[in-house]
């Protein structure tokens, strides 16, 4: 097994009858795979080795209040002496373990021991949290788990909508864009301000160009689709040395 994406794809295919979300971002991190078990989210973290990295990710999800957490890794070599203590740690935290083995052109997915379901009442009110609250329909197909293509976000969804709108309608002003396109922003004023900041940036919103028509600023879309970057955090402007001395 060469890549984490290959490993994750085998896990997704194994549990395919259930609703599966991939690369789901939450306040605590990004879950590789989330499976909907009748309204309760089962998080599966995938890695190519059963080490502290994936164990730490799983423990953090448990501390956050996730109902069920497992880790999926390739079948380890028999000579690996760290497997037994790693399994002990997982069992201590109620984290499940899944082995994935490649057999010619297929994969064998085996649950070594299951995840222990956490009772919500064990956690304080602030920790009564459910990963499914962060899952959207786009998470099922937008980005495969374990890939580096970039996960789905509400910002990306907004930019994709704007770009599709501009391709269909031609050059439009910011007022027309905000009036006709559904965005994730809380208000029209916020949408105008943020889109005016990010749309002209080709690194953040590739495929969108700015046109000047006299005093009017219009936005248009290039014909070829591009990858949308994550929304960057605007940096605060530094005070000039002149202002500091005044």
Quick structural gist:
The protein is of the alpha+beta class and 246 residues long. The chain folds into 2 domains: 4-140, Rossmann fold (3-Layer(aba) Sandwich); 154-221, Arc Repressor Mutant, subunit A, CATH 1.10.10. It has helices at 4-14, 52-64, 83-93, 154-169, 174-180, 188-198, 241-245, and strands at 20-26, 29-36, 41-46, 68-74, 96-103, 106-113, 172-173, 208-213, 216-221.
Task: List key phrases describing it.
246 residues; Arc Repressor Mutant, subunit A; three-stranded antiparallel beta sheet; six-stranded mixed beta sheet; 2 domains; Rossmann fold; alpha+beta; elongated
**How would you describe the shape?**
elongated
Low-confidence stretches: 121-126
- The whole-angstrom Rg is 23 Å
Which structural class fits the helix and strand makeup? alpha+beta
Mean pLDDT: 83
Strand content: 15-25%
Number of strands: 9
Task: Give the proportion of residues in helices.
Answer: 25-40%
Count of spatially separate domains:
2
CATH superfamily of the largest domain: af2093 domain
CATH architecture of the largest domain: 3-Layer(aba) Sandwich
- Number of helices, where a helix is a run of at least 4 consecutive DSSP H or I residues: 7
**Order of helix and strand elements from N to C terminus:** HEEEHEHEEHEHHEEH
CATH class division of the largest domain: Alpha Beta
How would a crystallographer describe the biggest sheet?
6 strands, mixed
| CATH fold-level name of the largest domain | Rossmann fold
State the end-to-end distance: 63 Å
